[in-house]
Amino acid sequence: NAGVTxxxxxxxxxxxxxxxxxxxxxxxxNSMYWYRQDPGMGLRLIxxxxxxxxxxxxxxxxxxNVSRLNKREFSLRLESAAPSQTSVYFCASSxxxxxxxxxxxxxxxxxxxx
Amino acid sequence: xxSLEQPSEVTAVEGAIVQINxxxxxxxxxxxxxxxxxxxxxxxxxxxxxxDGLEExxxxxxxxxxxxxxxxxxxxxxxxxxxxxxxxxxxxQGGTYKYIFGTGTxxxxxx
Lengths: 114, 111
What we know:
Helix content of chain A: under 10%
Helix content of chain B: under 10%
Oligomer: heterodimer
Number of helices of chain B: 0
Strand content of chain A: over 45%
Shape of chain A: globular
Number of strands of chain A: 11
Structural class of chain B: mainly beta
Strand content of chain B: over 45%
Number of strands of chain B: 11
């Protein structure tokens, strides 16, 4: 039982390049989330997927797109990376009895945009 | 809008008890969660309070007072491994699955 996995762990991009961050969970959770965390800050919600087939914007969606590929997988795409998107990106899922209030996080992707 | 306030840093010695406070402003309240995050690691869930009172999980307890829009995390018998950042979080009024985190409290445990 791996929980939530993310790839890649590290990535360096040049301004204007695109990339997709992958996330998968094996806990049969319905809901999945993408957050970014800037140094010394809390987590900010980028997009979420309440259930398979649905996605919605969070607090900071500009510059990102998402795809809920199936129940297990939720990807985050940067179409044209900017230095302001340098951050640590965490994927999370929820689906237990506490619902959204108990989220399980992946190990994160450390992205640098130069 | 909604906001969460936490102290930025707390320092305590090994074996002591420490309390990390969280005050929130929300138009609707659905519960307060706490997460721990070690440097370079991912957040991990610690506790959740939906109703007023104390929830205890081993050395960690969490308290909520909805009338005061206030909660705290209590860590007892502090250990060096408790040095980490601690975040409170609430559900956003804008949607069931929108979740807002505080900016976090960095706890330093001294030997």
